[in-house]
Amino acid sequence: MKKIVLGLVLFMLCMAGAQAQVGQNFPALEGETAEGETLMLPDGVQGKYTLLGLAFSKKSDDALQTWFQPVYSQFIRKPESGGLFEDFGYDVNVYFVPMFTGVNKVAAGPARKKTLKNVDPELHPHILFYVGELATYRDQLGLKEKDEPYFFVLDQQGKIVYATSGAYTKKKMEQVDSILSRED
């Protein structure tokens, strides 16, 4: 019985942490695109809804990659021209953000090359590399589990309207889709 209660309490704390960011503005994050251009979030993406996936460890990066294909299929891939669903695409920004912090900063260059080599080139415009400190994001966004990726949906002004963590699940994607469908 104690294990069940403890498990329930831990689950509720995790859910509270993920929901704590909803309603606040996403903190400024400067990253570099695959093309080498600097992009500042959320200022550089205002005017559209934005889906962000953040990872700051090898394990969380592996879990982040479970989102690549589903997010690409749902939000990035353009419907075939002339097809029945041509006008039903999403107009959202999507960025997967590997974060190189602490001692991992030195690995940013080689990891970037490896990522660009191993990830489908159609996803390259949606990868933003961050090299810097983690404390601001850990504190403001509640990034407590280093082995989990974190996902945020930002509104047109950069305010967090949805937050979750972990590998891809159909339920999480349905929640993201529900939010973005209301705004189209």
Give structural notes:
The protein contains 6 helices and 7 strands. The longest helix is centred in the first third of the chain and has 19 residues. A hairpin with a 5-residue loop joins strand 6 and strand 7. It has a single domain, classed as Glutaredoxin (3-Layer(aba) Sandwich), CATH 3.40.30. The N terminus is likely disordered. The chain has a 7-stranded mixed β-sheet.
Overview features:
7 strands; seven-stranded mixed β-sheet; globular; about 180 residues; alpha/beta; Glutaredoxin
Topology:
Layout (H helix, E strand, L loop, with lengths): L1 H19 L8 E5 L4 E4 L7 E7 L2 H8 L2 H9 L15 E10 L6 H11 L9 E5 L2 H7 L8 E5 L5 E6 L4 H14 L1
Parallel strand pairs: 3-4, 4-5
Antiparallel strand pairs: 1-2, 1-5, 3-6, 6-7
